Amino acid sequence: xxxxxxxxxxxxxxxxxxxxxxxxxxxxxxxxxxxxxxxxxxxxxxxxxxxxxxxxxxxxxxxxxxxxxxxxxxxxxxxxxxxxxxxxxxxxxxxxxxxxxxxxxxxxxxxxxxxxxxxxxxxxxxxxxxxxxxxxxxxxxxxxxxxxxxxxxxxxxxxxxxxxxxxxxxxxxxxxxxxxxxxxxxxxxxxxxxxxxxxxxxxxxxxxxxxxxxxxxxxxxxxxxxxxxxxxxxxxxxxxxxxxxxxxxxxxxxxxxxxxxxxxxxxxxxxxxxxxxxxxxxxxxxxxxxxxxxxxxxxxxxxxxxxxxxxxxxxxxxxxxxxxxxxxxxxxxxxxxxxxxxxxxxxxxxxxxxxxxxxxxxxxxxxxxxxxxxxxxxxxxxxxxxxxxxxxxxxxxxxxxxxxxxxxxxxxxxxxxxxxxxxxxxxxxxxxxxxxxxxxxxxxxxxxxxxxxxxxxxxxxxxxxxxxxxxxxxxxxxxxxxxxxxxxxxxxxxxxxxxxxxxxxxxxxxxxxxxxxxxxxxxxxxxxxxxxxxxxxxxxxxxxxxxxxxxxxxxxxxxxxxxxxxxxxxxxxxxxxxxxxxxxxxxxxxxxxxxxxxxxxxxxxxxxxxxxxxxxxxxxxxxxxxxxxxxxxxxxxxxxxxxxxxxxxxxxxxxxxxxxxxxxxxxxxxxxxxxxxx
Length: 678
Ligand code: ADP
Ligand code: MG
Description:
By secondary structure, the chain is of the alpha/beta class. Among the domains are: 1-41 and 150-169, Orthogonal Bundle (DNA polymerase, domain 1), CATH 1.10.150; 45-140, CATH 2.40.50.140; 242-272 and 287-413, P-loop containing nucleotide triphosphate hydrolases (Rossmann fold, 3-Layer(aba) Sandwich); 445-600, Rossmann fold (3-Layer(aba) Sandwich), CATH 3.40.50.300. Helices cover 39% and strands 19% of the residues. It has 25 helices and 20 strands. Helix 13 links the parallel strand 10 (337-340) and strand 11. Adenosine-5'-diphosphate (ADP) binds at residues 254-257, 260, 283, 285-291, 414, 438.
């Protein structure tokens, strides 16, 4: 047996079970070993029968008699009696007719299960039984519970993993010896054995620490290596023109916030270097990132180099082009700007391309298609990425190939990134945070609603529409699925347009529409062709509809706080008071988590809370990448993360050669390709 042997080589795994294992991602023995328990149940204490109390118990005894019979409605019941020196009790199995034949009367067994009264029977219900041995798998120990599917039960998985134990025990070490010593980590083989067959809590904790450490170490090592590699690339130094910056700031209709000023300054320092900038500006919705980006662009344009701004959708690109046009106009630089999107006519495109080539245009705004396009980018100095997380090494290399040098890269995001996450997943980025909001903003009024308060909610909405405002209604799913009692955009749209808002115009938007269709509907909403837009979270990203004042989130309990915060940032973007109604799926009391969003307007705080309760996936709904999910380490474990991060730095400082660590190398290389989420 080897790690890459198929699971079919294990005893008891036929085609059927192999398929089931495959469905949970287990194809070979190595993947089975990596299939870690979800939780544990402690059956390690053996209790004398006379002292058994209701609840989970383990006894050790002899099985005296066993008989099976069919009861009403075809139910099969097996009953047996177990005995030890202190007494006897009943074992009861429902619908497991094979039990009788498998029990060896008179033999000594470990028996674990729930001792309780059910259907007038007092006994251990559906117990696990196992002949007494020094390595019980299903009883008389801390028992692992795996993620199960129909026909694939933990008891069976345990048996399979037990078969691989010799292989687990010979798992090779993956981390450098000095590191293991320095951090007091247990050997990798021991860690896997303990996670599958823990003897006590301390063992479990040591195992988790060992594997969690390795997990974070790999990710941070990958991002540090990416950072180093990028720093060795050449880019063009962009000098700081103080006069131009002052002139720009002077004509703005507002004063920059301190955070905006600090961020701009950091960017200017970065861009003066001949190493490429890789900076993420992280600021809540409405914190004023656009001005910051434009100030970065100014210096590049001044050098007669090019700036490319990429937005996630065409509509957003158009909105940016308009805003930026206004910002540049007073400096007489607006004619340096061009929108370049897929919907331009071939002729317009050709003109734009020519003007870009001639240096007539320096500031190009478009979608991601920009970099695939036949744009002449040999003078590209700066790339700005708005709300777009998927811009990594690949794209950067492409641009480098076109330009002959690495452009500086500035990413903008409104997704609040907690510090712990920034240090791990985003380790290769320099981050500027704009925490401060421009003064004078009206905070959005947020209310939790039970589903029976809909009449009042719809009356409030109607009033807003009467006042000329518009409304977003966000639902978690597209269509009714039956399985989950969740609001779907289709059902909600039908209900609102046919029942509650018959005289209003209700639009529908979701991710299954083509991007052209989505753009068109958003455009129509913007032009007030709809009063209400029922949508999935596709509207989360960036579009500015200043006239919208109400955001309704259905099944609010299903969303992450950071996500709700983003959604509510879609309204209250003008001088109209914004409202956010969070409608619960049922009328039970809302969680503390949801209560928090009623009172807090701090995106970072909410993101931290999400991270604690729901893990990084909740924050990065759009950005989930299986390989980046921490399986063992917790991002809330600041100490572990700091230690692993420091170790990764030390690994580099020592001049260690990754090639020497085959397994580690394999993982780090994979991660290097995907940690570039900036
Ligand atoms: P976001 O960070 O969400 O991209 P924007 O750049 O779209 O935010 O800015 C939101 C609004 O705030 C814009 O109308 C912008 O003109 C305005 N704004 C930006 N900075 C300031 C400031 N310092 N004071 C007042 N208003 C500002
Ligand atoms: Mg923005």
